[in-house]
Amino acid sequence: MPAQRRLYVGPSLRRLRRDLGLTQADMASDLEVSASYVALLERNHRPLSAEMLLRLAQTYKLDMATLAGDASTDIAARLQSALKDPMFADIDLPPLENADLVTNFPGVTEALLRLYTAYQEEHLALADRSVEAVDPDGADSADPVAESRRFLAARRNSFPVLDEAAERLAAAVAEAGGLEGYLSETHGLRTRRMPPDVMVGSIRRYDLHRREVLVDDTLDAASRSFQLALQIAWLDLRADIEAVAAGGVFATEGGERLTKRALASYAAAAMVMPYTAFARAAETRRYDVEALARQFGTSFEQTAHRLTTLQKPGQERVPFFFIRVDPAGNVSKRLDGAGFSFARHGGGCPLWSVHLAFRTPREIVTQWLELPDGQRFFSIARTVTAGGGAFGAQRVERAIALGCAAEHAHRLIYTHGAPEPDPTPIGVTCRLCQRMECTARSAPPIGRQILPDDIRRTSTPFGFSDG
Where is the HTH cro/C1-type domain (predicted)? Predict the structure, then answer.
């Protein structure tokens, strides 16, 4: 007969005591044991007996299953994740030793996790110092673009209120025979397509006096539909947009305006691609961006962008992240619903395929990724074109990447029938990446001393110390 597994609940017991506002002596008195025994239990120097488990449950009205659950499992997973950091790569850390540390020394484990968390926060703070050095007044905090991005990121770019309002509006648009019909019937507005010289730098203009909505006649069908939907959003959903934006705190007027602009675009996309129908189609077509774009009459970028918003409570789909870059590596849009670590400042990792997509225009490039902390993701990347529409008209080429965590990748058509290959190791940015062997590195990582090359020159751009 196998020996009964001993139950150690030190961290859980300590957390319970603190939540109840008790000292060890108080708990000992309640349980009719000595304070030293409670201390031993909290330090995992004694296992929790069945009698003591029952006494705890009865005294503090607890669910025994909750207290008896293996709390060390989560802590062990957190520790294991932290120890995957490349700075520990040269240290032999057997899983059994990690488990012993969690079980026998929970206080030390908690201290290590706190230190690692502080290290990560300081790591990011150090990476931002180059920006602060350029602007010692901390311009980033008053950067309108950064403000708007923070607002969207904090809400995972999901606004169910706008989704529901836009879905109702989409039904009304369908009854009116389309966007132009709705503008005419509901608002008495005529839609006219005008050449660029008449539009004078605009692609859409609302002429209130003439009761017209003018759109640039060089826009493709997807862009034209989106612009008309955007105008309807401003006409019919302004109050909803204002209400959602009111939930944010903005240091600049520009940040608030950019946020409202993003919310209006969100509503327009939700009108053209209503949540219920689009979410169902996404699952049916296995998140095939091109097929979904054809089905809804939208562009590749509009469709990819909409896929990042499918997190309505109770109707969640695959959580995606999205980024758009130009050939110089400048990020013009980024949205995260998948826990992906974007670089706040500077360029991203050159090994990520989003930067290589310009070599194969309009072709989808897939890639498995692994960040320095061991997180794995799957991404697709493709170039998109803005502007153009006439000979000599300026065109802007950008690349976009859409990705999700590795555990969701099997739901995407892009991985169907193909085994998962070894992921490409990438970093958030060179200053935060501790992979010493990377030949694509453009800057040494923070905290590493650059070594002289008078005796030895490494194969990587920099040689640095181990500490």
Answer: 13-67
